[in-house]
Structure of Branched-chain-amino-acid aminotransferase:
Amino acid sequence: MEITIEKTTSPKTKPDQNALGFGKYFTDHMFIMDYEKNIGWHNAKIIPYQPIPLDPATAVFHYGQAIFEGLKAYRTDDNRILLFRPSKNMERINITNQRMCMPDVDVDFCVNAIKEIVRIDQDWIPSAPGTALYIRPFIIATDPYLGVRASQTYKFMIILSPVGAYYPQGMNPVNIYVEPDYVRAVRGGTGDAKTCGNYAASLKAQERAAEKGYVQVLWLDGVEKKYIEEVGSMNVFFKINGEIITPALGGSILPGITRASVIHLLKAWGLTVTERKISMDELYQAYQSGILEEAFGTGTAAVISPIGELSWNGENIELGKEVGELAKKVYDTITGIQTGKVEDAFGWIVEVE
Ligand SMILES: *Cc1c(COP(=O)(O)O)cnc(C)c1O
């Protein structure tokens, strides 16, 4: 399939690189393609960034058949453009597609579409340390029909947003509220799919944690509210007595690409990484016995987010204001690989030429 390209005749003014924030500005172009049941994906094009007219009856507005991905393009010091494991995102979009009864996309075609649009809008990739071009591929159900069923038509789009450094003042540990009531996902639900409804369902707990002065929520399992699942929209790792533990993917946890990369890296360094169930009780006991050494979240946005404090049922787990040695080393290595400063020993980098 060819991608038709229509370039904008009125490029926008680019935002101040030092005040980008996250997801506020969008580039000059967007990728869009359509799906129809008997045709498959077709009509792939890159066009000027613009609103899309949709019938009020469009399925996505009513029953939430919508999914997304998130990755970044990084500019190196010598002005090359790098993507980090983009085919992993497109493989995951298909896992999500399957769960949501949505049509598969072609992984290689989509990685090429990402490269193509990033190339066209490459002047939008910021160069200040820590900044990047955030890439948001997403798919929505577009049948104008109110019956509850899987849509027969879809739109796949890719939009791009220059984003600021996650840690403009340097990496600092955040305080987390262990959510006692609300759950993010249940066994058999959609927790391991990157589907929009998971986020809608998480807002209430996030707001409540924010009111109490916490930056993120730690989610417990939806059945016993005992086992640790994720932190906000990040996977989570603990270092206990030299061993690194992360909750095993059991269907309700999102299989993060940063998570997989961190596990790979730690094992390559000869460290012991265990994917298993870990309860808050166990974590608290480890803390009390003085063997809980570090805790950090992992995800595309922050890469590594060290945890400074966990508030759980009125108890506090204090990990301190210093960034842990391991969190720092993993962060420096992955961001180094992403920006071309550290050798890509695992073949994770795809260059946009
Ligand atoms: C996207 C996401 C993550 C992190 O995944 P990455 O591929 O590492 O960015 C973790 N948890 C949830 C719920 C997510 O949606």
Remarks:
- Residues 74 and 132 are 5 Å apart (CA to CA).
- DSSP finds seven helices and 18 strands in the chain.
